Amino acid sequence: MIYLDNAATSFPKPQRCHEQALSEYFQISASPGRGGYDAAVLAQERVRAVREQVAAFFGGEGFVTCFGYNATDALNTLLQGLVKPGGHVVSTRLEHNSVLRPLHHLREAGVCTYDLVPCNRLGLVEPEAVARAIRPATELVVLNHASNVLGTVQPAAEIGAVCQERGVPLILDVSQSAGVTPIRMRQWGVAGLAFTGHKSLLGPTGIGGLVLDPALEVRPSRFGGTGLDSASPLPSREYPERLEAGTVNLLGILMLGRCLDYLQTPEAQEAGRREATLHRRLVEGLQDLAGVTLHCPGHGPQRVPLVSFNLAGWSPGDAGMVLDGDYGIAVRAGLHCAPLAHEDLGNGDAGAIRASLGRYSTGEDVEALLSALAEMLGAKS
Hints:
Elements: E1 2-3, H1 15-28, H2 38-57, E2 64-68, H3 71-82, E3 87-92, H4 97-108, E4 112-117, H5 127-133, E5 138-144, H6 156-166, E6 170-173, H7 185-188, E7 192-196, E8 208-212, H8 250-263, H9 266-287, E9 292-294, E10 306-311, H10 316-327, E11 329-330, E12 332-334, H11 339-345, E13 352-356, H12 363-380
Parallel strand pairs: 1-11, 3-4, 3-5, 5-6, 6-7
Antiparallel strand pairs: 2-8, 7-8, 9-10, 10-13, 12-13
Helix pairs in contact: 1-8, 2-8, 3-4, 5-6, 9-12
């Protein structure tokens, strides 16, 4: 298989990192924070260390890391824990359903209203447009840092400055940008961040969470045991336990920590530079193919390494099936859980084809895709 769907999940994973974490897990797999004996204390200490590692990785030193399943889980926790009755939220039309559906639910339940800011022709959300959308009742701004459809990286620092000036917290969804481009929470004025571990952070599925300024008051939406003050019927008010009812995913946390270590190595950084070079070749190769419509093409620091496009004479679904069945190439076809982005592109019914690179993609992978597309276009001409 030629795997070009890394925006969905990275594949393959760095096996050494995962094996190291698994070995550690077998040695200390007690329940973190649920006992005073050595193994439980050691497990809790390792979880604490990865919490700090995650916060530092995102430029949020001193911020709180709360673990969850993934970015969707974290975004639900933040939205439902921050929005109050009568409140207003500003977000964008580039958002994933992990933001759109919770906002729709909250509006249907009569809790809040929201406005979605469009992007410009370059695929960027303009800070001035966010400023115009903020009202006196606005409680937060939610921004998709990198679009999973266009690949564009938004001007988070400039939007963060707008939010700080207006006294509105900025929540950043870094599902596509984490592990690809540097993120600086404190420097950019980001109050809360949702991440997932299984994309460009190279970790396993089922681990993610949020990093937040401890001054941000997020109401818990799930309740249960935390290992603290068990006699009380009230949930803990302390972070991170406030947002972590039940036992955390120790194995996933250990694997995430090992992968973050790896991402700091020269080997991984060189792989990242190679990934950027391959992205440029992919974009330019697609531009050279008559019959390919590229959506907001570009490469470089303001893009993550993915590209969405349509083929003349092919529906995205059919093209994806042929690429898989006839050429052994895995891409993603459809709406990519971001229906409004596709609606604004004019392909809201069928969506597009998306090819996304990863740390282990090769030049041969890119050339195989370009060759296959040329043959498919030739068959329709």
